[in-house]
Amino acid sequence: MARKLTSFRRPRGGALSKSYDTIIARRRKGALEIQFNRPERLNTINEEMADDIMHAMDAVELDRRTIAVVLSGDERAFCAGADLGGFKDLPEDRYDNYRARYNQRRNRLLYRFMMNYTKPVIAVVEGYCLGGGFELAMLSDFIVAGEGASFGLPEGRHGLIPGAGGTQNLPRLIGAPLAKELVWTGRRIRASEAKEYRIVNHVVAKGDALAKTREIIAEMHGVGPLATMMSKQAINRGRDLPLHLGFQQESDLAYMLSWSDDRAEGLKAFSERRKPDFRGQ
Fold first, then answer.
1. Is 82 a catalytic residue?
2. Which residue in 9, 63, 74, 278 is a FRET match for 183, CA 20 to 30 A apart?
3. Which domain holds residue 83?
């Protein structure tokens, strides 16, 4: 008999739960901070953890008070990859599992969910950031790392390939030749080397990555949230478009902002030499 698979259903306007088993979710000064909380497993992602992350992020996507989401682990590991211990690929289930790979399995849904999330997502990396954890960090908008962080895609050493965007996102960040070397050798790189390759934006003292991220979010408060949302879409979509189509899309998104109350408030605040009171509308 085939193993029963349960689909993930996103809550609509759900409250931020305080009873997650695999993450710690807290609001702080306009940000939702999600700390992975499976230290005994190096914060590897299982189905429940993926479910918890999506639920918490979904609960604030329409909350205008939340301007960004922060993903972090602990000092030992951001996330060491996918936890495959609960997944069994029995011969009689293989075609069912193939069908389930996009729309049923929560850890797969998480990566697609991240790709379409409208608010900025910042990965705070201390310790190990490997496999699916590295792929998750690359799906964030940018990474802030402590000096002790290490990054790698070791799947090839297990006869696999990075299967959650690693073969697509890493070449876009650092170019195909270097991405191939890292995937084909499975070697880990330190935070300083990741900074050199432009994988991470900032490298700070060990243990200070979250504090640095909070400083960046404090600066982001001065930018209109609608402008942030539209610029995120323009940049992400434009990466794979010819330049003239990217310009067209940018123009469309910029024009849409001209209808917003925030634009009028921004111009008025500028003329009055005061800070704007953006309301996200």
1. yes
2. 74
3. 23-220
Domain identity same for 177 and 254: no
Residue 276 counted as domain residue: no
Active-site choice (47, 126, 135, 250):
135
Q: What is the pLDDT of residues 224-277, one digit of tens each?
A: 899 999 999 999 988 888 999 988 988 999 888 888 888 888 888 888 888 888
Rounded alpha-carbon distances, angstroms, from residue 255 to 17, 220, 237: 37, 22, 17
Q: How many structural domains are present in the chain?
A: 2
- Average the pLDDT over 158-169 and give the result: 85
3-state secondary structure of 261: helix
Q: Is residue 74 located within the same domain as residue 105?
A: yes
Asked if 158 and 42 sit in the same domain, the reply is yes
* pLDDT single digits (tens) 39-64: 999 999 998 999 999 999 999 999 99
Element (H, E) at 123: strand 121-125
Is-catalytic flag, 155?
A: yes
List the catalytic residue out of 50, 56, 59, 82: 82
